[in-house]
Amino acid sequence: MKNNNWIDAIKTLNDTGQPCILVTIIEHHDSTPRNSGSKMVVTLDTIHDTIGGGHLEYKAMKIAREMLQSKATETRMERFVLGASLGQCCGGAAVLLFEPLGHTMVQVAVFGAGHVGRALTPLLATLPCQIHWIDSREQEFPEQTAEGINCILTEDPVAEVSKMPPGSYYIVMTHNHQLDMEITEQILRRDDFAYFGLIGSQTKRNRFEHRLHKAGISREVTQKMRCPMGIEQVKGKLPAEIAISIAGEIIATYNAESDLHKQKTRHKSEVLEHA
């Protein structure tokens, strides 16, 4: 799918927290499909604008999507000769710059707009998070919400699980235990989350695990569920106290993810240097 106008595309993707790669021709020599300054925005399933089409654009898309899949955060430059090896006969050369954008946004689905949800979502909105706040009760959402919060009013909250991208964060705290159970089962069946927290006590966890195991979900998967969730050292039952505890655990999780990615990137660079 190709759309026009890379500027509008970046704004839209930034507003929704979707990562992308901005590809720019920074140098061109002799005959090339487009001149220096031409840009294209690449996501995992779309491209916006063009750097001239053909095999050069196809190769650029492939590199950009590899960067997205590996969650690359560093810019990258590549030089292409537009000859037979690239399937183009322009005879010129182009240098492309690949810039990752939007990787700092953590996608968070918050199920439930009760007291804790209303305390938690504004707190998460102050962090590098894109919030998808989901409930079936319109009256529970506040009239105004902070920037970065997308309120989703739906009669089928469970269906929203499948709409989240891989690596999302899920927080389940609805007004109904059966609904909590149905959402939990869908999240665990996907098993591609970075974080999943379920509000409740150890007793609730035990009860849910028993039903989930009977439904065919392995113990290895249910162990990834945080319930009770939040930082253990933050005590208290006030909505604000619970919200701060959960937000602290979210921060700890994405900081750990970031550190792990940096270690992997550093290790890969060292391997390449000694290859």
Structural description of this entry:
This protein has helices at residues 6-16, 54-69, 115-125, 177-190, 202-214, 219-222, 239-273; strands at residues 2-3, 20-29, 39-42, 47-49, 76-81, 93-101, 106-111, 129-135, 149-153, 169-172, 195-198. By secondary structure, it is of the alpha/beta class. The strands form 2 sheets. The chain has a 6-stranded mixed β-sheet with strand order 1-4-3-2-6-5. Strands 9-8-7-10-11 form a 5-stranded parallel β-sheet, sandwiched between helices. Strand 10, helix 4 and strand 11 (195-198) form a beta-alpha-beta unit. Helix 3 packs across helix 7 (239-273).
Q: How many beta-strand runs?
A: 11
Instruction: Please trace the helix and strand order, writing H or E for each element.
Output: EHEEEHEEEHEEEHEHHH
| Helical/strand content category | alpha/beta
Report the average pLDDT across residues.
86
Low-confidence residue ranges: none
What radius of gyration results from the CA coordinates? Answer: 22 Å
* N- to C-terminal distance: 38 Å
Helical content stands at: 25-40%
Strand content: 15-25%
Characterize the overall form: elongated
Largest sheet: 6 strands, mixed
Query: Strand order of the main beta sheet, please?
Result: 1-4-3-2-6-5
Q: Counting H and I runs of at least 4 residues, what is the number of helices?
A: 7
